[in-house]
Amino acid sequence: MKMHYDVEGGEFINVGTASSQFKKTLKMLGIGADIIRRISISMYEAEINMVIHANGGSIDTEITPERIHVVLQDQGPGIENLDLAMKAGYSTASRQAREMGFGAGMGLQNMKRNCDELQISSVLGEGTRVEITVYLNQES
Amino acid sequence: MSYTHSVTLDWEKCIGCTDCIKRCPTEAIRVRNSKAEIMNDRCIDCGNCIRVCSSHAKKATTDPIEMMADYKYKVAIPAPTLYTQFKKLRNPNIILTALKKMGFDEVFEVALGADVVTEYSKLLVQEKKVQLPMISSACPAIVHLVQMRFPTLIPNIMPVISPKEAIARYARNHLVKKGIPSDDIGIFFISPCGAKVTDTRDPEVFDTSMVNGVFSMKEIYLYLVPIIRELGEDEVEVLQMGSANGIGWAAIGGESTASEVYNRVAVDGIENVINILERMENNKLDVEFVEALACVNGCLGGPLTVENSFVATNRMLKIRKYLQFKGKTRDLNILDSSVSLDWDRQLSNKQVMKLDEDMFKALEKMERMEALYETLPQIDCGSCGSPTCRSFAEDVVMEHARIEDCIFMLREQVRKMAEDMVKLAEKLPPSIRTKGKGGEDE
Ligand SMILES: Nc1ncnc2c1ncn2[C@@H]1O[C@H](COP(=O)(O)OP(=O)(O)O)[C@@H](O)[C@H]1O
Ligand code: SF4
Ligand SMILES: [Mg+2]
């Protein structure tokens, strides 16, 4: 089953709406608590990044009995050096974003730690695509 | 898994409006046949619907006072909120004495239970036996909310029984040791809310409560007022055993203050609690302790209280000040290390939001639900009896509602029917049909 969410940029106050809605869907499907926790944390971090670094974008989710797959696509500035971005504490967040409590530089780390597969492809000046996968059959 | 909740509907009074369905945090209410219906397995007894209903058609059911007569030895265990309900009253001993005059043989305070629970919780945190951030387990409505809507946070709930249950266990243990047969002892909790009624009748983490009955604070208040008015100063017994901190648990922030956790969030009001739990679920709450109470201003705002909760909060401060300088406590120790404060079993994941046991079927239902939702007006008007268009789509898929229950969908169908009728009406009988008009394949 597929779902689509549009995420507005520059809206720092309600950030996380799509993740929150998706979480509700997962609960209605009776998916295990640990899986929900891991996918929510990953998706939430990626959604925030899309808002604070890339002026929004879109999210497509797919749930099958085997896995949960989330694709976040934006037309933002892209990531110049992915290895550097992955480092804990590295952040290019704006002052405004920092003042709102974002930009600790832990988002990508958090995503990597919580999902089973993380794929990021990014083209400077064109945008970033983040793919998150969590497998369902691990939890009894 | 269905449990008997305390919040119920007064059928006569309900006018079938949509006020309550919109404010229920677990979407547990529907309007059917012009009356609100509470879904048993979804209600967490938070009392929101009791507060919003302008027809006063929702109530928290408690036990009848006559139940006292069933026991030879009657014990009152009042929630500390009771102390804040009386004008100009600072000394808890007056209220505790009045309870004895009302017919109770003994009174033990839930505040004392709170003192013990405070110490025990501190110990668990020190010994790192808990997962941070810890969520207080004091409010049963919040515990049920987590079980239903935030199952990922179940491991964060403080695994300690509630102050009410703690004091009931100590009380019974003490009295039995004094030689009173357990069957003769009736322990009655004086409650600020319905959530504590449910928690007593149907406990989550152990089999049977040591509390025999739960009385409404409102009702007890009416008994106490005339007794307190007549009570002479020399008649006041020293019965208080709980500390100011234990009493303070009734107000929001009280538990945190008592356990001296500095890195904490104290949140009251169910919507605010939901916001904080959402944050916690996203791993975005860097605190050690979350004191979460369903009612605004904590238990002082419970649906079975008499006084305005902001006034009661002011009174709580005055009581605390009074106790600091003039408080007198009873010389008796009923605490006993053989009494356990641990849970007997883990909290269950209630998963009441689940569409189907079988995930394949759940997925299929979810797909139909989403497809239907797309065709709905998405204005959450509530006239179908479901709180939102999305929950209506869910109700249709779960076969708890029909698509025509949505007036917009109904209107759409009527419009189609009308169009068909016009088309039919235009079809003239062959005798008066002229060429090119009213016929079908001409
Ligand atoms: N969608 C994105 N578009 C552009 N840059 C991004 C995006 N996501 C992450 N980045 C870059 O990677 C860095 C690290 O991201 P992250 O670990 O989430 O930390 P933070 O968001 O706190 O800065 C960001 O500061 C930003 O430079
Ligand atoms: S905050 Fe207190 S009064 Fe309100 S529901 Fe929870 S336990 Fe009951
Ligand atoms: Mg980030």
TrEMBL record, chain A:
SUPFAM superfamilies in UniProt: ATPase domain of HSP90 chaperone/DNA topoisomerase II/histidine kinase
Taxonomic superkingdom: Bacteria
Biological source species: Anaerotalea alkaliphila
Cross-referenced Gene3D superfamilies: Histidine kinase-like ATPase, C-terminal domain
Residue stretches making up the Histidine kinase/HSP90-like ATPase domain: 48-136
Signal peptide start and end residues: none
A Pfam family the protein falls into: HATPase_c
Record protein name field: Anti-sigma regulatory factor
Automatic annotation (TrEMBL), chain B:
Molecular function per GO: 4 iron, 4 sulfur cluster binding; metal ion binding
SUPFAM superfamilies: 4Fe-4S ferredoxins (SSF54862), Fe-only hydrogenase (SSF53920)
InterPro entries associated with the record: 4Fe-4S_dom, 4Fe4S_Fe-S-bd, 4Fe4S_Fe_S_CS, 4Fe4S_Ferredoxin_RnfB, Fe_hydrogenase, Fe_hydrogenase_lsu_C
Span of domain 4Fe-4S ferredoxin-type: 5-34, 35-63
Keywords: 4Fe-4S, Iron, Iron-sulfur, Metal-binding
Boundaries of every 4Fe-4S domain copy: 364-423
Coiled coil: none
PROSITE patterns attached to this UniProt entry: 4FE4S, 4FE4S_FER_1, 4FE4S_FER_2
Signal peptide region: none
Name of the protein this chain belongs to: 4Fe-4S dicluster domain-containing protein
